[in-house]
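> @MW can you paste both from yesterday?
MW: sure, first one:
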Amino acid sequence: QVQLVESGGGSVQAGGSLRLSCAASEYASSPPCMGWFRQTPGKKREGVATIDSDSNTNYADSVKGRFTVSKDNAKNTLYLQMNSLKPEDTAMYYCAARYAGSWCFASRPSGFGYWGQGTQVTVSS
């Protein structure tokens, strides 16, 4: 099985930065696609960013220019650098992975079969 554990969440003021990490189990093979998603109470889980095996990235329009997704295959770790944070970025952030198919887009959370437990990000004004 693939296990994912997020870390790095916290509370920051608007305009601040956070760096989230997602550690995958060491025995898991490097997934073709990994992504970050977020969810607030009463809202659907929404895609934030993805990165595929060739390091191609995909971002939600709301975070382009502010967030950067990256990975370290040797460490089986995914990262999300979040800069210029806004109150609307407040959410539980989840790391996810998929092994099937060739597409890798944050717009389709249902396409990811493995999920972490989430890490809370709170941005105050």
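MW: second:
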Amino acid sequence: QVQLVESGGGLVQAGDSLRLSCAASGRTISTYTMAWFRQAPGKEREFVAHITWSGSSTYYVNSVRGRFTISRDNAKNTVYLQMNSLKPEDTAIYYCAAQTRTPAAIWTSYDYWGQGTQVTVSS
């Protein structure tokens, strides 16, 4: 079993930056594909980004490409999401997820989830 705990969310203004962290425990995530999803009120869970086990490949949803960066430190069993130039439409609960199969942008592909961290961007 893998336990995931997100942190780093908060209330910021448009144009600001935040860095989210996802700390894993229970098992090393060095062989896991890791991803970030988000869910805004009244909306479905949305894929944000994923990263392969080695960190050599990343993929982003179009709306965040160029502003967000996903990265990982397997030695620290932690995944990050650097979010720059934040917009009000980025407001959501952000979730970290893990799975051992081919990277995917579908939330049902992921086996382990954190509890989420709230990001609120004011205009």
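> thanks! The chain has a mean pLDDT of 96.
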